[in-house]
C-alpha cells in the first residue's frame, strides 16, 4: 500500500462544518480546522473549500455481469463506473453465468474485484442453485469462502416458494447472513411489461401489478418474524410496499428495505414513448408511488438506496419493447439523482445521504471497514462532492459499458470530484485516477 | 401528420378528413376501372410480423388502387427468434427506398419504435400492434357507422361526425387493439361508447377511458343502442381462466339469437351489428346475428379498402389539412380535387 499522504483542505464534513482531513496509510490520521504544516508535511493538497466530504458510497445492489456477460459489463468496467459514481464498495449480484451459487464463483468475482482495485467488490451469493428456486445453494460454503458472503439473493427472480424462503431465512442465521428478496409473485407477473394501471391500459402492455410485489413482502416479513431472521427487500417500488414495511418495522421485525434512484425520480408516463430504456424490473410506477418512496426514504422506513445498476449491450434495447431486456445503469448517476430527489427537495440532509448510501448499506452487508464515520483512525473511504455543479447526463461518456441510462439528457445536480478508496484516490478532478494496487498478502483490503 | 400510429392523438379534423377522403375513394371502387394514378412510382411495404391475411390484402388492394408498388415482407415470429432485429429490417426497407411502411406486429408499440427511432424516414402506418392499437380498423368502423348515422339523420356524411351515436363494444377488451383504437376515435367523433365485458377481460385502468363500462349486456341493450360491435374472443382465454367456459361466455356476453330478438322487441330497428372479423360464430356472435340485415360485417371489409386508400393517399401524396385549409388544391390529387359529394 502506498504511504502517500493526502490533505483534503477545508471540506464540509457531511455537509456541515468545514475541516481538513489528512489521509495516510489508508486511514484518516488527522481531522480538524486548519491543520498545521507540521502535521501536513509533504501531503498532496486537495482544495475542497467548495466540496462536501462523505463516506464512500456502498451499493448493495450492482450487476457486474462477469462471469458470463462480459459484453454487457466486466468487474473492471463496472467498478470503474462505481468509483466515478462515488462508491468504494459494491455488492455484485449473483445472476451471472455461471450463477454465483458456489464458493468457487464468488471467490472468482471477489478476486477480480481485488485485481481491479477500484472499489471493494462484495459478491452476493445465490439463495438457490442456478436461481432455480428448487434447492438451497451452498450458502455456508460461500459465507466461509475468501469472499465472506453475507448477502444472499436470487435477484432477478423471486424466491417465490414459501418453504424455500423460510429455510433460507433460517439457515443464514448460522453466519449472520441476510436474504435480499426480489419481491415479485411470478404467476401475477407472467409476461409483465410495465406497471399495471392507467398507462398500461392505454398502451396495451401486459401489467405488472403492485400486488405482485406487496404480497411477497407481506409474506416475507411474516416469515422473517416467525423464524426471527433478517430480511432485506430489494428495490421497493410501490406505496403499498412502503406501508407493509412500515407496519413490519413497527412490530420489531428485522427487515430492511432499498429503493433505487430511478424509482425515486421516474414514472410510468415515460413508457408512453415505448423506448425500452425505460423498461426495468420492478417497473417504473405512478407519481404517487414515487412520492411515497421519497417520504419513506426520508423517514427511515426505507433504509438505503441501491442502484440496481443493470448494464445491457445496446442491441438488448434497440428493439421492440416486449423483446427488450429489463434494467438501467445507475452507478454514475446515483448521487445526482438522490441529490435531485431527496436533498434539493429538502427531504434529507447530506448526513442523511451518508446514512442511506453508505453507513446503513455497509451494516446490512456486514462490510466492516466501509460506511464508517469520518473520524481519526477510520478507513479513508471518502467521496468529495461538488453539490453546486450541474451537468447534462451523457451516457456515452460513462465508464460502464452499458449505454442504457434512463437519465441521458437530463440535467442533474452534483458531481463526484474525488473518491478515496482505503486512502487511495481512485478519482481525482472528476476523472478516473488509478486503481489501488495491493502489495503483499497481508493487505487484505475489504476483509 | 407523418405517421398513423394510434387514434388517441388523432384530432377530430384529421379523423373527419380521412373519412371524407375515404368516401371519395369508395367511389373509385365502384368504377369499372378501379385505379387512381395518385401514388404511381411510390413504394409501399407491407411489413407483417404476425399473420393477418385479411388486413394485408386490404392494404395491398388499397395501395394498388392508388397505383403504388407494393412489397409484401412477411417476417413471422419474433425478431429475436428470427435472428434479425426490427432495426435491421427497418434499415433494409429504408435502403430499398420505401415511402410507406405498413406494419403489423405482435409487440405493442413496435410501429412507434419504427417511427420514432430514427432508423427510417418512411411514413409508418400501424396495421395492428399487439394489444395496443389498430387505427385503420377503427377508422373503417367509424366510416361504416358514419354512413349509417348520416343516412338515418338525412344529413350529408361529408364533414360529419358521430355526435350522439350510442355504441356498445362488447367482448375481450383486455386483449383488443380494435377496442382501444375505437374508444379514442369514437370519443373524438362525439359518440357515446359503452364497453361490455366480463370483469376479467377489462384492463385495470379502464376507468380512466372516455367511455362507460358495464358487465351486463342485456341492461346495456335495454338502455338503447345504435351500433353494437362484438369483439373476437379467443377460446384459449378460457384455459387461462378469464371465463369458466365458452358456453357461459356465449350466454352472458355473446350476441345470440335472443339478444337479436331483443333489438326487435325494443323497437331498435336501425341498430347495426358490427364485427371486425374473423368471427367465432356461436361464441361471441350467433350466425343469425352475423347474417342478419343489421350486420355490417361485409360493409366493414369493403370500407376497409377505402379507408386504407385514404390513409395512404393523405400520408404520401396529400396533405393532412389543418382546421382551416387554404383554397389551393393539389392538382395531382384527383381524389381530393374532386368536389366533395355525398356518396353514402
Automatic annotation (TrEMBL), chain A:
GO molecular function: dihydroorotase activity
A Pfam short name: DHOase
Pathway recorded for this protein: Pyrimidine metabolism; UMP biosynthesis via de novo pathway; (S)-dihydroorotate from bicarbonate: step 3/3
Binding site for Zn(2+) 1: 61, 63, 155, 308
Domain Dihydroorotase catalytic: 53-239
Entry-linked PROSITE patterns: DIHYDROOROTASE_2
Cofactor needs: Zn(2+)
Enzyme nomenclature, EC number: 3.5.2.3
Active site annotation, chain numbering: 308
Record keywords, A-Z: Hydrolase, Metal-binding, Pyrimidine biosynthesis, Zinc
Residues noted as binding Zn(2+) 2 in the record, renumbered to the chain: 155, 182, 235
Signal sequence residues: none
Binding site for substrate: 63-65, 95, 281, 312
Free-text remark on how the cofactor is bound: Binds 2 Zn(2+) ions per subunit.
Catalytic activity: (S)-dihydroorotate + H2O = N-carbamoyl-L-aspartate + H(+)
Physiological role: Catalyzes the reversible cyclization of carbamoyl aspartate to dihydroorotate.
Record family assignment: Belongs to the metallo-dependent hydrolases superfamily. DHOase family. Class I DHOase subfamily.
Protein name, as recorded: Dihydroorotase
Gene: pyrC
From TrEMBL, chain B:
A GO term, aspect molecular function: aspartate carbamoyltransferase activity
Residue ranges, compositional bias (Polar residues): 324-333
Top-level lineage group: Bacteria
Reactions accelerated catalytically: carbamoyl phosphate + L-aspartate = N-carbamoyl-L-aspartate + phosphate + H(+)
Pfam family, one: OTCace
UniProt pathway: Pyrimidine metabolism; UMP biosynthesis via de novo pathway; (S)-dihydroorotate from bicarbonate: step 2/3
PROSITE patterns: CARBAMOYLTRANSFERASE
Keywords annotated in UniProt: Pyrimidine biosynthesis, Transferase
Binding-site positions, L-aspartate: 82, 177, 232
Family statement: Belongs to the aspartate/ornithine carbamoyltransferase superfamily. ATCase family.
Name of this chain's protein: Aspartate carbamoyltransferase
Gene: pyrB
Amino acid at each position: 500500500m502506498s504511504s502517500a499522504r493526502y490533505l483534503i483542505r477545508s471540506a464540509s464534513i457531511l455537509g456541515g462544518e468545514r475541516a481538513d482531513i489528512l489521509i495516510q496509510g489508508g486511514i484518516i490520521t488527522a481531522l480538524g480546522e486548519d491543520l498545521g504544516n507540521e502535521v501536513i508535511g509533504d501531503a498532496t493538497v486537495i482544495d475542497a473549500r467548495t466540496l462536501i466530504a462523505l463516506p464512500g458510497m456502498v451499493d448493495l445492489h450492482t450487476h457486474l455481469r462477469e462471469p458470463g456477460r462480459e459484453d454487457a459489463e466486466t468487474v473492471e468496467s463496472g467498478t470503474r463506473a462505481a468509483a466515478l459514481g462515488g462508491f468504494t464498495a459494491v455488492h455484485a449480484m449473483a445472476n451471472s453465468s455461471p450463477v454465483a451459487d458456489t464458493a468457487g464463483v464468488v471467490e472468482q468475482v471477489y478476486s477480480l474485484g481485488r485485481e481491479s482495485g477500484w472499489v471493494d467488490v462484495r459478491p452476493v451469493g445465490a439463495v438457490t442453485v442456478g436461481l432455480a428456486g428448487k434447492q438451497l445453494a451452498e450458502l455456508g460454503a460461500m459465507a466461509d469462502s475468501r469472499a465472506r458472503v453475507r448477502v444472499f439473493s436470487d435477484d432477478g427472480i423471486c424466491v417465490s416458494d414459501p418453504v424455500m424462503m423460510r429455510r433460507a431465512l433460517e439457515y443464514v442465521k448460522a453466519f449472520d447472513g441476510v436474504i435480499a428478496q426480489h419481491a415479485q409473485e411470478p404467476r401475477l407477473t407472467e409476461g409483465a411489461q410495465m406497471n399495471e394501471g392507467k398507462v398500461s391500459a392505454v398502451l396495451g402492455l401486459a401489467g405488472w401489478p403492485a400486488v405482485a410485489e406487496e404480497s411477497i413482502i407481506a409474506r416475507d416479513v411474516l416469515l422473517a418474524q416467525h423464524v426471527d431472521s433478517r430480511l432485506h427487500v430489494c428495490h421497493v417500488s410501490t406505496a403499498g410496499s412502503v406501508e407493509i414495511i412500515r407496519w413490519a418495522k413497527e412490530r420489531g421485525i428485522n427487515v430492511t428495505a432499498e429503493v433505487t434512484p430511478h424509482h425515486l425520480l421516474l414514472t410510468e408516463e415515460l413508457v408512453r414513448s415505448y423506448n425500452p430504456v425505460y423498461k426495468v424490473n420492478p417497473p417504473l410506477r405512478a407519481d404517487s408511488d414515487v412520492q411515497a418512496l421519497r417520504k419513506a426514504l426520508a423517514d427511515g422506513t426505507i433504509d438505503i438506496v441501491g442502484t440496481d445498476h443493470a448494464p445491457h449491450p445496446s442491441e438488448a434495447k434497440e428493439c421492440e419493447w416486449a423483446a427488450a431486456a429489463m434494467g438501467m445503469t445507475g452507478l454514475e448517476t446515483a448521487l445526482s439523482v438522490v441529490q435531485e430527489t431527496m436533498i434539493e427537495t429538502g427531504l434529507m440532509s447530506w448526513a442523511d445521504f451518508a446514512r442511506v448510501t453508505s453507513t446503513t448499506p455497509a451494516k446490512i452487508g456486514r462490510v466492516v471497514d466501509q460506511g464508517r464515520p469520518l473520524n481519526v483512525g477510520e478507513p479513508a473511504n471518502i467521496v468529495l462532492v461538488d453539490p453546486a455543479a450541474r451537468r447534462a447526463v451523457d451516457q456515452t461518456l460513462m465508464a460502464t459499458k452499458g449505454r442504457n441510462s434512463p437519465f441521458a439528457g437530463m440535467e442533474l445536480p452534483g458531481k463526484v470530484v474525488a473518491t478515496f478508496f482505503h486512502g487511495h484516490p481512485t478519482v481525482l478532478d472528476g476523472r478516473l485516477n488509478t486503481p489501488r494496487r495491493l502489495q503483499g498478502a497481508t493487505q487484505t483490503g475489504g476483509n | 401528420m407523418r405517421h398513423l400510429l394510434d387514434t388517441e392523438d388523432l384530432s377530430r379534423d384529421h379523423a373527419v378528413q380521412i373519412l371524407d377522403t375515404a368516401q371519395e375513394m369508395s367511389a373509385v371502387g365502384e368504377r369499372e376501372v378501379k385505379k387512381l394514378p395518385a401514388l404511381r412510382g411510390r413504394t409501399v411495404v407491407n411489413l407483417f410480423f404476425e399473420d393477418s391475411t385479411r388486413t394485408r390484402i386490404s392494404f395491398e388492394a388499397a395501395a394498388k388502387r392508388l397505383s403504388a408498388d407494393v412489397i409484401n415482407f412477411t417476417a413471422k415470429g419474433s425478431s429475436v427468434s428470427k435472428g434479425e432485429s426490427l432495426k435491421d429490417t427497418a434499415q433494409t426497407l429504408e435502403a430499398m427506398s420505401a415511402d410507406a411502411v405498413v406494419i403489423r406486429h405482435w409487440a405493442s408499440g413496435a410501429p412507434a419504435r419504427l417511427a420514432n427511432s430514427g432508423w427510417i424516414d418512411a411514413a409508418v402506418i400501424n396495421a395492428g400492434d399487439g394489444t395496443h392499437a389498430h387505427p385503420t380498423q377503427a377508422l373503417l368502423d367509424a366510416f361504416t357507422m358514419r354512413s349509417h348515422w348520416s343516412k338515418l339523420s338525412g344529413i350529408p356524411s361529408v364533414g360529419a361526425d358521430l355526435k350522439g351515436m350510442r355504441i356498445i363494444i362488447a367482448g375481450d377488451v383486455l386483449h383488443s387493439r380494435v377496442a382501444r383504437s375505437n374508444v379514442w376515435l369514437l370519443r373524438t367523433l362525439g359518440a357515446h361508447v359503452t364497453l361490455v365485458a366480463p370483469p376479467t377481460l377489462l384492463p385495470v385502468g379502464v376507468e380512466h377511458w372516455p367511455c362507460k363500462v358495464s358487465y351486463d349486456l342485456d341492461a346495456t341493450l335495454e338502455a338503447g343502442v345504435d351500433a353494437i360491435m362484438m369483439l373476437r374472443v379467443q377460446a384459449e382465454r378460457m384455459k387461462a381462466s378469464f371465463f369458466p367456459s365458452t358456453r357461459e361466455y356465449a350466454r352472458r356476453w355473446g350476441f345470440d339469437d335472443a339478444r337479436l330478438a331483443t333489438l326487435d322487441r325494443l323497437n331498435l330497428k336501425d341498430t347495426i351489428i358490427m364485427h371486425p372479423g374473423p368471427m367465432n360464430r356461436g361464441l361471441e356472435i350467433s350466425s343469425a346475428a352475423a347474417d342478419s340485415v343489421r350486420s355490417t360485417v361485409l360493409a366493414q371489409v369493403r370500407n376497409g379498402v377505402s379507408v386504407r386508400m385514404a390513409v395512404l393517399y393523405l400520408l404520401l401524396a396529400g396533405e393532412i389539412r389543418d382546421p382551416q385549409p387554404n383554397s389551393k388544391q393539389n392538382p395531382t390529387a384527383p381524389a381530393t380535387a374532386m368536389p366533395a359529394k355525398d356518396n353514402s
